Amino acid sequence: MSNPQQLRYSKEHEWLSNAEDGVSTVGITEHAANALGDVVYVQLPEVGDTVTAGETCGELESTKSVSDLYSPVTGEVVAANQDVVDDPALVNSAPFEGGWLFKVKVTDEPGDLLSADAYTAFAS
């Protein structure tokens, strides 16, 4: 498993890009996608929703189970990836690229996000 170094990670297995103009992209990690199995349904927060760090903001359903989606930061959702809603398998095939989930205008970021190396150690 190779976690991109430029991202930060939550202990709930979400990743967060560095903010560009205050907006960060959120997705789930390859580790989480593999643990879930084939994702068949994705429910994302809607544009305009406020998400809170560590709280549920959506859901991923796979052939194995249903898993809550947690926001790694607090802020306002500015985009949701319709491509993963239409083709949930993108979460498995490209978790760090086309399988991103939503973009958020960050207003608060917790201090416990992990570096790629720290997340790799945590997840193993």
Helix proportion range: 10-25%
Structural class: alpha+beta
Distance between the termini: 10 Å
Number of helices: 4
| Extended strand count | 9
Q: How much strand?
A: 35-45%
Major sheet summary line: 6 strands, antiparallel
Mean pLDDT over all positions: 95
- Note the overall shape: globular
Return the string of H and E elements.
EEEHEEEEEHHEH
Cα-atom radius of gyration: 13 Å
Contiguous low-pLDDT stretches (5 residues minimum) are none
Describe the structure.
By secondary structure, this protein is α+β, with helices and mostly antiparallel strands. Helix content is 19%, strand content 35%. It has helices at residues 30-36, 82-86, 90-93, 116-123, and strands at residues 8-9, 14-16, 23-28, 39-43, 50-51, 56-62, 66-70, 74-80, 102-108. The strands form 2 sheets. A 6-stranded antiparallel sheet has the order 1-2-3-9-8-5. Strands 4-6-7 form a 3-stranded antiparallel sheet. A hairpin with a 6-residue loop joins strand 2 and strand 3. The protein is globular, with a radius of gyration of 13 Å. The N and C termini lie close together (10 Å). The relative contact order is 0.27.
Could you list some keywords that capture this structure?
six-stranded antiparallel β-sheet; 124 residues; globular; alpha+beta
Write the layout of secondary structure elements.
Elements: E1 8-9, E2 14-16, E3 23-28, H1 30-36, E4 39-43, E5 50-51, E6 56-62, E7 66-70, E8 74-80, H2 82-86, H3 90-93, E9 102-108, H4 116-123
Antiparallel strand pairs: 1-2, 2-3, 3-9, 4-6, 5-8, 6-7, 8-9
